[in-house]
Write a structure and sequence with these properties.
heterodimer; A: 715 residues; 8-stranded mixed β-barrel; 6-stranded mixed beta sheet; 54% helix; B: 297 residues; alpha/beta; 10 helices; 42% helix; elongated
Chain lengths: 715, 297
């Protein structure tokens, strides 16, 4: 195979190019023509020579007859010896001899090994003697002729000639040589001529090819100048017209592709191209540059308030002001019209201004100018913009990443600048920040957490723990609070305070809440299926969930689905949620309460409750925040506040659950004060729902030994 | 004869160029075919030219003459310095020109030869005397073995062959003869039955024997003669003659010499007369005189 490939490559190399192919074709035609001419000529010459030889042989025989007859008539064959030897010495005569009618050899010349007067036996001679006429026999290389010597009616003898064609062979060789020489001359002249013709024919094509190749390599200024008056010249003219149109089209495409329509500055693609090549170009250099990521603060509000038309005008004004700031810093801006292959020469203060999209802009500037430029831009952007009759105050936040200090690739540089810009925004906007790696790391971690959270919500990876609630006086389990836990892949189980704030910022709380409500309903149904005294499972619901249309219907659906008693479900809302005046919230709460679902105010004592409104709210339980319980036994003021709240709860006829009971002293205080229920590590830690189910079942069996139970739970 | 007239132009041209100047040696030969003779002679002349340069010979030329009279005249006139021929013709020319035989020339490995008279095997003749009424074929008047020797042999036997003119047949008491112009013709005529006897040499006899074994027989055989001889003109510088003799004698020692001799009518050697010049040539001169008297020369 290798051999075949090699031959194929050599053949391709040999036949590459029109001129070479034309030459090969011409050469082949000339060779065939020359070979044909030589063959025809050789055949013709051979025929002529054969004819000539036959004539020569006959002529020689005739001459010999004429010479011999007088001598034979005189019976003087001896005097013919000289003549016969003379003739026999000729190169074209193999032998010549004369016999008398008795077949005796009289005289001979050439290659005759018979002696004088010896008897000759020869078929041709016999034929002649029989027919009295000349006889010819053609052999491979000789013409054998026998002719009678006749005078009157008498046969005086027979001449016998072997005429050799050795001479023919040498003549044919000479003819062949001459033909070959003429053929070679013709071939050489033909090849030279074909080369010239092929070159002349292919020259315009070669020029066209070279020009097209230049055009293909991106040289749109390539032009063909053929002075001939033929199709090639027309093709050249057409090509030039095409290139002119292509150039215009390319320019338009370039503009469309690389110019931002709103601001007229280069767009993201153009920036990416520049940044990528700059990163490559300066990799081997000591020179660095800065990438500045700018974001127009509160731009969304402008769009929302004044419409996109004003927003676009603001962006245009922002970009113009940016360009001015850059020029004021001594920078020269590259535009879309610049050569696409031209890189910003940051060493000579060439810079790039591009819009990434939205209100995001990116600058590429010399590193040593970045700080001053950022300060200048922030100061300039602090002045209001007058747009379409509006006066808009939109500052800018700028993030700066340095090449190669912070990153060496396009993507990483932009990311770093972006991160730095967020750092600037977190620092209060209207400022600039350099990229900081530690902050970035936190952002990356948060980003990973966000991804995992999204996945966890999608796959319902959360786990429900239940923390038992006890009667203060009876010390019996009366319910449980559903608490969320999350087994994060490769990170272990996380407490709610480590991921719920992130989930809240991501807007995932309603979805997570729904999952927990469903789990709580399912657990309540399962746990109470075999109990005579029901346990209520309390679950936290946010204001956002309650404010979603259909929440109540969803809860009802799950209650039906799991065949749960609505009274076994207690929805805990925060004090803040309870204070929210929302018709939808109030309607959904009313719907749920109507079917028996209980409501509790969670973390009571932490917020600023409107006691008046609290009175009007419909709820069954007040859960006193653990912070109010912590001071029991240590802080008389805390105890006094707790007593007040208990009195208030009684006044509005609500059950009271004290959270965070961790000591016997705290429990004793609750007993002394008449609190209804409590929950806390003192009597029971949160546990997986399945364990809780088993524990509750064991509680009902061991209800005679509550102390043991409390101890077990506490462990 | 036609061929001779054809080559005579070349021969005459050569003769006009051949002048026996002091620094030039001229070799002479009697032959009906001057061109063939010159071709055969040229290697020998070139060889001599090379080997006689130190003796002041810067050129060796060739002269081919048609008969012995012309040769005798040329030798007498000093136009031929050295002459090669068969012994009886040489003796004839020597007698008439004063040329001096000094070397024997071997031909086809044979130093001596003789003449034979051949008749068909069925001939009734048992000796020369039985040839009455017969026609004998002689080669030609200048042929030693083909004419002089057999004619002399017949004369000494008291037989006097007479030339036959036209197609006349000899009387029963006489022997007629015809010239065949060639040894080949002589044996051919005998083979064809055109003549009753043929005077030839051993080579002619061999042709007949090979072609028709047993068809012919030898009727008479002559004495042995040197195969061929070399003569110089009278008055030649003896030192130069010795030098030429030395060169010719040593030709057989070198390949070039052997090649040149072979080209010169199959010569194989030059040597001195074994019996000495006088002992060899006195009988020959006598024979020539007899032939002359008989009118056969």
């Amino acid at each position: 195979m290798g051999g075949k490939d090699s031959i194929s490559k050599r053949f391709q190399a040999l036949t590459f190019g029109l001129a070479r192919r034309l030459m090969l074709v011409f050469s082949a035609l000339i060779i065939v023509f020359v070979a044909a001419v030589i063959t025809i000529n050789m055949q013709t010459q051979r025929g002529q020579l054969l004819e000539h030889l036959e004539h020569s042989a006959d002529h020689l025989v005739s001459l010999s007859q004429e010479v011999s007859i007088p001598y034979i008539l005189e019976n003087n064959p001896a005097d013919l010896e000289v003549f016969f030897q003379e003739v026999g010495s000729r190169s074209d005569v193999e032998r010549l001899f004369l016999v008398d009618p008795q077949r005796w050899l009289l005289v001979s010349g050439g290659d005759v090994d018979m002696q004088f007067l010896s008897l000759v036996t020869d078929p041709l001679i016999e034929q002649v003697l029989e027919t009295r006429a000349p006889q010819h026999v053609y052999a491979d290389r000789a013409v054998h002729v026998a002719a009678p010597l006749i005078v009157g009616n008498s046969v005086l003898g027979v001449l016998r000639l072997d005429y050799s064609q050795k001479d023919l062979a040498s003549k044919m060789n000479a003819v062949l040589l001459n033909n070959l020489m003429a053929g070679c001359v013709f071939l050489l002249v033909g090849l030279a001529f074909s080369r010239m013709v092929a070159g002349r024919l292919s020259r315009p094509l070669i020029e066209l090819t070279q020009t097209v190749r230049c055009a293909a390599d991106g040289d749109l200024d390539a032009e063909i100048s053929l002075k001939s008056n033929d199709e090639f010249a027309q093709l050249g003219t057409t090509f030039n017209t095409m290139m002119h149109n292509l150039k215009n089209s390319m320019y338009e495409i370039h503009r469309v592709a690389y110019e931002d329509k709103v601001t007229g500055v280069p767009n993201r693609s153009w920036l990416n191209n520049q940044l990528e090549h700059l990163a490559l170009h300066y990799t081997q250099s000591d020179t660095g540059f800065a990438v500045m990521f700018l974001d127009l603060d509160k731009f969304k509000a402008v769009n929302d308030t004044h419409g996109h038309h004003v927003g676009d005008l603001l962006l245009r004004g922002f970009s113009r002001r940016l360009a001015r700031c850059m020029r004021e810093q001594g920078l020269t801006l590259l535009s879309v019209d610049s050569d696409e292959r031209h890189l910003a020469d940051v060493e000579n203060n060439e810079a790039v201004l591009a819009r990434l999209g939205g209100d995001e802009f990116t600058l590429i500037v010399p590193s040593d100018k970045a700080d001053a430029l950022a300060t200048h831009i922030v100061a300039e952007m602090a002045r209001p913009f007058k747009v379409d009759g509006c006066q808009l105050s939109n500052t800018t936040s700028i993030g700066i990443a340095l090449f190669p200090t912070h990153a060496t690739s396009r993507e990483h540089l932009l990311k770093c600048a972006d991160v730095a810009m967020y750092q600037a925004k977190r620092s209060g906007r209207n400022t600039h920040r350099y990229y900081d790696h530690s902050t970035h790391t936190r952002l990356i971690e948060r980003s990973a957490l966000e991804r995992d959270l999204e996945l966890a919500v999608e796959q319902d990876s959360f786990e429900m723990f239940l923390q038992p609630q006890f009667g203060v006086q009876s010390d019996e389990v009366v319910g449980a609070e559903a608490l969320i836990r999350w087994e994060r892949p490769s990170k272990g189980r996380l407490a709610p305070d480590t991921f719920l704030p992130v989930a809240a910022s991501m807007g995932l709380l309603p979805k997570i809440g729904q999952l927990m409500v469903r789990k709580a309903i399912e657990a309540a149904a399962r746990i109470n299926r075999t109990r005579t005294e029901t346990l209520a499972i309390a679950v936290n619901v946010t204001i956002e969930e309650l404010n979603e249309e259909g929440f109540a219907d969803m809860v009802k659906h799950w209650l039906d689905l799991y065949e749960a008693n609505p009274r076994t479900l207690e929805i805990e809302i925060t004090e803040h949620t309870a204070m929210e005046e929302s018709v939808l919230v109030e309607r959904q709460v009313a719907e749920l309460r109507e079917i028996g679902v209980r409501f509790a105010i969670d973390d009571f004592g932490m917020g600023y409750s409107n006691l008046g409104r609290l009175k009007t709210l419909a709820f069954e339980t007040l859960k006193i925040d653990r912070s109010l319980v912590t001071g029991v036994g240590e802080d008389p003021a805390s105890e006094s506040l707790l007593l007040t709240i208990l009195d208030m709860a009684k006044a509005i006829e609500a059950d009271v659950v004290a959270e965070g009971i961790e000591t016997a002293e705290q429990l004793a205080f609750l007993r002394a004060t008449g609190c209804d229920y409590y929950q806390g590590y003192y009597s029971g830690k949160p546990m997986p729902a399945a364990m809780f189910t088993r524990w509750v079942a064991s509680q009902s069996k061991d209800s005679t030994q509550p102390d043991n139970t409390r101890q077990q739970l506490a462990s | 004869m036609r061929l001779f007239s054809f080559f005579s132009i070349a021969f005459l041209a050569m003769c006009s160029l051949s002048t026996a100047e002091a620094e030039t040696l001229v070799l002479g030969l009697i032959n009906d075919e001057p061109r063939q003779a010159i071709e055969c002679f040229t290697p020998l002349s070139a060889y001599l030219e090379d080997h006689l340069a130190q003796q002041g010979i810067d050129q060796v030329e060739i002269t081919v003459l048609p008969d012995s009279e012309a040769m005798a005249t040329a030798i007498r006139d000093g136009e031929v310095d050295f002459y090669f021929d068969s012994p009886l013709v040489a003796a004839h020319v020597a007698r008439d020109s004063g040329a001096v035989p000094f070397l024997r020339r071997w031909k086809d490995g044979v130093g001596t030869y003789f003449s034979l008279i051949i008749v068909p095997s069925d001939s009734l003749a048992s000796g020369l005397a039985d040839l009455g009424g017969a026609t004998i074929g002689f080669e030609g008047p200048d042929s030693t073995s083909g004419y002089m020797l057999p004619a002399a042999m017949m004369h000494r036997s008291g037989l006097h062959p007479r030339p036959l003119l036209d197609d006349h047949q000899p009387q029963t008491d006489e022997i007629g003869y015809v010239f065949t112009h060639s040894d080949r013709n002589t044996v051919y005529w005998l083979a064809r039955g055109m003549i009753d006897a043929a005077a030839t040499d051993p080579r002619g006899w061999a042709w007949l024997e090979a072609a028709q074994p047993g068809a012919f027989r030898v009727l008479a055989r002559s004495v042995h003669l040197p195969r061929n001889v070399v003569l110089h003109r009278p008055g030649m510088d003896s030192a130069l003659v010795d030098e030429v003799a030395t060169v010719l004698r040593h030709m057989e020692d070198t390949s070039l010499g052997v090649e040149a001799m072979e080209a010169f009518f199959h010569t194989t050697r030059f040597d001195d007369f074994p019996l000495g010049r006088e002992a060899t040539f006195d009988p020959l001169f006598q024979l020539v005189d007899e032939l002359d008297v008989m009118g056969l020369l």
